[in-house]
Amino acid sequence: AAAAFAEDLGLVPQLSAMDLASPAHYYLADLDRDKVASLERSRGEFAYRSASPLRPLLEIYRGFVAGRSYRGRVLPRFFLPDGWLITPLRTLSWLAPCPELSVLAVDWARAEPRAGGPSPGLGAAADLAVAGNVRGARRIALAQTLTAGQADDGSWGVTESTALVGERNAVACSAVGDFAAAGTRRIAVLYGALHMRGIGELLEANLGLEYAGRDALRVFSQPLAPPTVRAAAAKAALPALYVVVGTADWMALVGAVEASVASGSYDAWLFAGLYIARRVLLYYALARCIEWGSSLFPEADNASD
């Protein structure tokens, strides 16, 4: 599946391009699935692995009730916690037109540290899509998905403190320390984006390393679409079109529920459930287009150009 997906985007899977058969160059520093599951059970954590059939249900619950940034507060000086007021209102708002937009705004306001705005990749993907370059738009969307996969306060409960991320980070950093103590001077840690921030912090705290800068390795590039009046007009119309379609969806729900109640059937619950599921999935997709955390490259935050 990974090979077919990569080929469809004109890319090559990482495992197909790397020679992992050479033990002289690679060392596996990780926990196996059973060990992670055992740690999660001992710590009372939810088994949030991609193979778990309950993962989609947990994501829908967090999107529906708790939210992405459920630990933050909109009113930090208010005497009551935000959850007492915002969580019930947030839950009820899913029956309103385009609820994902208002809910996303609340989660943005609750983010700690403060979140940024929409990702630049969102506009770039829209430009390519308007220009008819669907593959290019999908490549930008893939890059956005990868860079958005960082562990932070809003990563759906998967933070550096969990066994799935934190314990595996500790094992990787321990292996780095062992090789460094043995005299190895050049060590590269290959891991997913969800682990990047935590591993960096552990390398600094436990091994005394200091961040010295970045040497970017270009995985793939995507030429951007040239700016045109058509693209600018389309992007300007997209938000209004989104709201119109969302409102029509809500009006269809109201009509279906009214007809169901009038006929005495229980289809209203099905219609409402399907509507909420659609909007939660849209919320989940839009949330990945927001720059929630800080930059992956600290020196870029202080750059003057």
Q: Describe the largest sheet.
A: none
Percent range for β-strand residues: under 5%
Order of helices and strands: HHHHHHHHHHHHH
Parts with pLDDT < 50 across at least 5 consecutive residues: 151-157, 295-305
Structural class, by secondary structure, is: mainly alpha
* Structure summary, number of beta strands: 0
From the spread of the alpha carbons, the general shape counts as globular
CA-based gyration radius: 23 Å
Q: Could you give the topology of this structure?
A:
Blueprint: H1 2-8, H2 14-17, H3 33-43, H4 55-66, H5 82-92, H6 99-110, H7 120-130, H8 134-148, H9 163-181, H10 196-207, H11 229-263, H12 267-287, H13 298-301
Helix pairs in contact: 3-9, 4-12, 6-12, 7-8, 7-11, 9-10, 11-12
Mind explaining what this structure looks like?
- With 305 residues, this protein is mainly alpha-helical.
- The protein contains 13 helices and no strands.
- Helix 7 packs across helix 11 (229-263), helix 9 (163-181) packs across helix 10 (196-207) and helix 11 (229-263) runs antiparallel to helix 12.
- It is globular, with a radius of gyration of 23 Å.
- Residues 151-157 and 295-305 have low confidence and may be disordered.
Features:
305 residues, mainly alpha, 13 helices, disordered C terminus
Summary?
The protein has 305 residues and is mainly α. Helices cover 57% and strands 0% of the residues.
